[in-house]
Amino acid sequence: MTASAPDSTLPPPPAFQQLAESRAVALFLDFDGTLVEIAPGPDAIEVPADLSSRLEELGQRLDGRLALVSGRGLDNIADHVGDLAIARGGSHGAERVAADGTSLGSNPAPLAVSIVEEIQEVAAANGALFERKRFGAALHYRAAPETGPEIEAAARQIASANNLRAKSGKCVIELVHPGADKGSAVAAFMETDPFAGSLPIFIGDDVTDEDGFAQASRLGGFGIAVGDRPSQNAAYRINTVKEVYEWLKL
Ligand SMILES: O=P(O)(O)OC[C@H]1O[C@H](O[C@H]2O[C@H](CO)[C@@H](O)[C@H](O)[C@H]2O)[C@H](O)[C@@H](O)[C@@H]1O
C-alpha cells in the first residue's frame, strides 16, 4: 500500500505468525530505532547480548528469508552485534551479503579523501559528530539539534558538488553514492534465493526506511513504521522497539 499523505494513525499489523503461516514471508529489518533504541550517539546504543542468535533463530523460522538493512556499515553492525549468519545490507544497502557472508553485487567506492575532509570541516565548524563509514560519511547533531539546518545545508552542498546523495535521518545527515538506498537493497535481495517469490515486509523507523516500505509495497508486500514518525509508504505501525520484538517473538 502506498499512502498519499503522511499517516500517523496507521493500524497495527496482523499477527506475524499468521502471516508467516499463510505464505512465504521475507522480512527486512532496520537496525537503529527498530531493533535497538535510539541513543545519544552511534556507539552509545545498547544491543541485547544475544541479538545475533535471536536473529539467526528468526531467520531459520523464515527459511533464510530475513535480512538486516541498515544505514550503518556492515563492519559497524558486526562491531555491535558480533558474527551474524543472516543476510544483511549495510551503508543503506550499498553493501550486501548473503547469510553465509558471500557478497551480493559489488561494493561502491569509498568517498574520496578530499570529500571526507570537507565533511570533517563542516563537523568541526558546527560541533557535529563526524561518523566515518566505509562507503559514506555521516554528520550527527543530536547533541545540538539547533545546528541541524546549517549542517544539513552544508552537507547538501557537498553532495550536489560531488554527485553524491544527502540522506537525512534522525538528527543526522549522511552522504552516500547515488543508488545507495534501502529500496534498491530490498529489490536486490528479492531477486535472489531464498527471497525470490515471497511476500516482503520491511520494518523501520526513519525517513530512509520509506524507500524500503515503498519497494516492499511495489513487490506485493508492505511496510511497518516503528514509532510516531508519520510515514508516507507504510501500511501499518508498531509503536516501540519493544513491541517489534513482541510482534516478531524475537
Ligand atoms: O538504518 P538504521 O539502521 O536505522 O541506521 C540509521 C543510522 O543510525 C545511526 O544513527 C542513528 O542512531 C544513533 C544511535 O541511536 C543516534 O545517536 C543518531 O542520532 C541516529 O541518527 C548510525 O549512527 C548511522 O550511521 C545510521 O545510518
From TrEMBL:
Range of residues in the leader sequence? none
Q: Which InterPro entries match?
A: HAD-like_sf (IPR036412), HAD-SF_hydro_IIB (IPR006379), HAD_sf (IPR023214), OTSB-like (IPR044651), Trehalose_PPase (IPR003337)
What Gene Ontology molecular function terms does this protein carry? Answer: metal ion binding; trehalose-phosphatase activity
Q: In which pathway does it act?
A: Glycan biosynthesis; trehalose biosynthesis
What EC number(s) does this enzyme carry? 3.1.3.12
UniProt family annotation:
Belongs to the trehalose phosphatase family.
> What is this protein called in UniProt?
Trehalose 6-phosphate phosphatase
State the species of origin.
Answer: Pontixanthobacter luteolus
